[in-house]
Amino acid sequence: MNKILLILCAAGIFTACQNQTAPTGEDSSANAKIHEGMDTVEDGIQQKADSTAAYLQRQKDEASAAIKQKMDTLDVRIEELRKDGSAKSKKAQAKLEAAREDLARAAEDVKNSTAEAWDKTKEGLDKSMKKADSEWQEFKRDFKELFR
Question: Which end of the chain is least crowded, N or C, by CB within 10 Å?
Fold first, then answer.
C-alpha cells in the first residue's frame, strides 16, 4: 500500500514538473499552488507511512509479549514435570514441549511478518494461542494429580 502511494506521488510530481509553463502572472501563481499542494500531499503520505509502520510494530510487540508470557508459563510447568520424573510426568512434559515449540514458531512468524502478511500471521497466531490454551486445559484435566 505504501508503495502504491509513493508511486502515485512520484507520478503526480513528474506530471506537475512536465506541465510547467513560463512564469507569467497567473500561471506562476497556479504553479506555486500546485507545488504547495504536492508538498502537502508528500508530507501526508510520509506521515501515513510512518503511522502505519508504527501501528504494525505495536501489534507485533503486543503479540510477541503475549507469546513470551505463554512460553514462560509453559517453561515453569515443564520444569516442574522434570523434577517429578515419573512416566506420566514425562508424557505430560512431551506434550507441553510440543505446545511450546508451536508457540516458538508463531513468535518467529510474528518477528518476520511484513505489513502485507500481517493479517494472515495474526490469524495463525490466534489459532496457535487458542490451541495452546485448549491443550493446557486438557492437560490439566488429564494430569491433575501432578499439580497438587
Answer: C
The answer to whether 78 and 132 have CB atoms below 8 angstroms apart is no
Q: Dmax of the chain from CA atoms?
A: 92
Answer with the residue of higher pLDDT: 141 or 148: 141
Reported for 114-119, long-range contacts at CB under 8 A and 24+ positions apart, including other chains, are 115/1, 115/2, 115/52, 115/53, 115/56, 118/56, 118/59, 118/60
Euclidean distance between CA atoms 146 and 7, whole angstroms: 61
C-alpha 139/C-alpha 34 separation (Å) is 66
Specify the pTM: 0.58
CB 101 within 8 A of CB 132: no
* Closest to 60 in 3D by CA, of 18, 117, 102, 101: 117
Residue 121 near residue 113 (C-beta atoms within 8 A): yes
